[in-house]
Structures are given as C-alpha cells and as structure tokens.
Specification:
78% helix, globular, single chain, 229 residues
Length: 229
C-alpha cells in the first residue's frame, strides 16, 4: 500500500501542526506545572480545573469555543484580521491552536509530576546560599525535571497527531491546506473504496503516536531512576 501525494501532505501537515502546538504550549505549561507543583495558594484548584477542562470537554465543544473567539467575526479573530491582516480560523494555524488547547492538560500534568518529584531540599539549599528563586529554578528545578518535561512534550505531540474534533471546527477540512491525518482518514472513509485506501494513513498515525508514547515512557522512567539513585 502506497500513499498518494495528498496523503503525504496530510502527514507533513500533521507533523507541522503537532510541533507548532508543542512549541506554543511549552512555556506556559512549564510555568503552570511548576506553580501547581511547588506553590500553595487560594484558588489553586480553580487553575487546575481550568487547565484540565479541555481533557473532559468534547473536542467539538472546545473547537466551537475557539471558533467563536478566533473566527472571522470573533473578538480575537476580527482584531487580528483588521489590525494585522492575519487569520487563524480555517488556516493550518487554527489546527495548531486546536491541538495545543486539547493536548495542554496532558502536557501540564506530566510537567507538574516532574516538578513534584524534584527534591525540595535541593531548592531550599540553593536559596539558603543566596541564590534567588529564578536562578534556583533555572539551575536546579528545570534540569532535574527535564526528562518529565520532554515526556510531556512527546505526550502532547502524540495527542496532537490524533486531534480531530476541535480541528475540524476551527480549521475546517480543506484539502492541501488544513487536512491533517485524522481529517484525511475521515474524508477517505466517506468515499467509495476509501476504507481500503485509508490504511496507510491509519498505520502512519499509529506509528507516529506509538513512537512518541514509547519515547515519553522511556524518559519518565529515566527521570524516576535519577530521582531514586
């Protein structure tokens, strides 16, 4: 079974969308994950619930909300269009945004777990030597949590590869523009003989997601061993 030119485009676009989604999410996910792991404050449960919300909402609902906000007539979408002549909806960037939002809880959970496993005594010892909190974070907390952070990125990448519901709402299913692997499989399944011709994309999606999950598991185990050595 060979993939067509359109199938290869879907694979390339899915990789582009997934990598972009991880890059978009990573800075704030590291910050939120660290705060949730290391800080105690009122309203912490509310932040955790907001972060986890895309995990339990139907992806179509998430996509609907993104479309309302970033669509041509939405508050953010219309502002970007009129001010910067920039469009997110019905564009591959819309697919990246949808993937970033849907995979965000998985990334934050992994990063939070990684920071929770960092020995607080090491951070306290660093601060007791006169090193400020920011430098302690960069020199102690971040390196020790790096395996868990990378594992969270790989988990978010795998989830982004398979994202469908939110993507089709804000990006649509436009051939050679926004059609990722899941959208291409859905499109093929609705054509005569498409079930058979969709197998190469199905196997590609399984392979990419499996490799990401295996690499993430290896990194998490390595981090756990380092913490207990």
């Amino acid at each position: 079974m060979f993939m067509s030119t359109q199938d290869w485009f879907a694979v390339r676009l899915s990789l582009q969308v997934a990598i972009t989604a991880v890059i978009i999410s990573l800075p704030s996910a590291v910050l939120i994950g660290y705060i949730l792991a290391k800080r105690r404050f009122r309203g912490k449960w509310l932040i955790q619930n907001l972060v986890d919300l895309p995990l339990v909402l139907p992806p179509v609902v998430t996509g609907y909300m993104l479309l309302v906000c970033f669509g041509p007539y939405g508050p953010v979408g219309s502002f970007l269009a009129h001010t910067f002549h920039f469009r997110i909806a019905f564009n591959w960037l819309g697919a990246a945004l949808a993937s970033a939002v849907v995979s965000y809880p998985l990334m934050v959970r992994s990063i939070r777990s990684a920071f929770s496993s960092v020995d607080s005594k090491l951070e306290f010892a660093s601060e007791s030597l006169g090193i400020n909190k920011f430098k302690t974070f960069l020199q102690i907390s971040l390196p020790l949590a790096s395996n868990g952070i990378l594992a969270g990125c790989l988990l978010a990448f795998a989830r982004s590869i398979g994202e469908f519901g939110a993507t089709i709402m804000i990006a649509g299913d436009i051939p050679d523009q926004t059609r990722t692997i899941p959208l291409a499989i859905y499109s093929l399944a609705n054509t005569i003989g498409g079930i058979k011709s969709g197998w190469p994309l199905v196997l590609m999606a399984i392979s990419l997601s499996s490799i990401s999950l295996i690499c993430g598991e290896i990194l998490e185990r390595r981090g756990w061993r380092n913490d207990n050595s």
